């Protein structure tokens, strides 16, 4: 395992994080809107389910995913469409797992941003004759863009840092499921601590930049509001 | 008011007396109760280690706590001061390394078992495992990480000897240790995998193919007393028990042989 392996893992991790972030923008938008506008009594239940990955140990998710993705679960049925037996050990499986795992990191910021808009702009838009879809597209989404930005940053960063779930469903295949976090673990176990140091320090730097960026965005929007 | 205070003082006195008794009791208990040792165990040896531990505790009253993992992973922890007194490795290189690094007690290293690698496939008849491997009619072949798990290294060596390194390279899934390699197969995600015989001794014969000894270097599993346990009689007693006839009888039940 040389530098090539590190770049393969880096590229794979970035690809996974990008795809998961884009997918979650699409998935989280209707969820967040529903959680914001709905008066259904299921709201609490759905809200709790969405937030579950925040609290659950990755091993719980990893265990259920391993079974669900396997040949006896729905993942296996899906995989059989293209002749595979299981979705575990595949990039697609990791995407699926990460979408579940990072869901709250996208939904919560968007929901919070929407709730901060309040009812007034929505009602004004309705009075002016906007359809619900127009209201959502031209009023709510622009006003909630800060929520989208923080959601995207958090999701991206969280997917990059994912470890437990990947270790349990990935099978550690270079170029397919061997992500950066798992590579660091491997290097530590193999006593190749130079490489572990190098990667770990890059992750610290990355995390710092992400957090600093998020804080900067927060400050800027607050200033603009004030 | 006065009464109130005196009651409080009384309660206070009672409480501190109670605490004192408690402390003395605890001290007595820990003196009377048996010792406890911590043993790092290569994952392939999980089942026999638990059986050995139970038998050892029945015999001596001392309790044994096991930490299971890939040999390499455990050794990395030991170099960082993990609180284990004994290492039951899946190879003989890490115990030797422990000597070189000044972490093991001189002269305490011995081979406690010789391991056997098997191909395990719950859904395929692998009576002729070589043919099954050659035919290649499977999508995932599970092994343990060859860099940290000796059984993984033996699996890679076997594939190499069979000339299948290239053919299987896109089908290999790598468990973090030999337990995960088995779990990938048992959960159905991989059709077959290289594991330790001890993990599958109770499985039907057609699901297990013993890899011929000439396909890989023998797996000599060595034990070593670590410096942390150099003066620990219980740790020494445990190692003696592992080498005793009683200990060997237990180890043999799981398909291991001896040097």
Describe this structure in words.
The complex is a heterodimer of chains A (226) and B (259). Chain A is an all-alpha fold and 226 residues long. Chain A has a single domain, classed as MetI-like fold (Orthogonal Bundle), CATH 1.10.3720.10. Chain A has helices at 3-37, 43-55, 58-69, 74-79, 91-117, 120-127, 132-143, 145-160, 164-169, 180-189, 193-225. The radius of gyration of chain A is 20 Å and the shape is globular. By secondary structure, chain B is an alpha/beta fold. Chain B is built from ten helices and ten strands. Chain B has helices at residues 2-32, 46-60, 71-79, 93-100, 129-135, 150-161, 165-168, 178-186, 233-243, 245-253; strands at 36-42, 63-69, 86-88, 110-115, 117-120, 141-144, 172-175, 192-196, 208-210, 219-225. In chain B, the strands form two sheets. Chain B has a five-stranded mixed sheet, with helices on both faces. Chain B has a five-stranded mixed sheet with strand order 7-6-8-5-9. In chain B, strand 1 (36-42), helix 2 (46-60) and strand 2 form a beta-alpha-beta unit. The mean pLDDT of chain B is 89. The interface between A and B is medium-sized, with 22 and 23 residues.
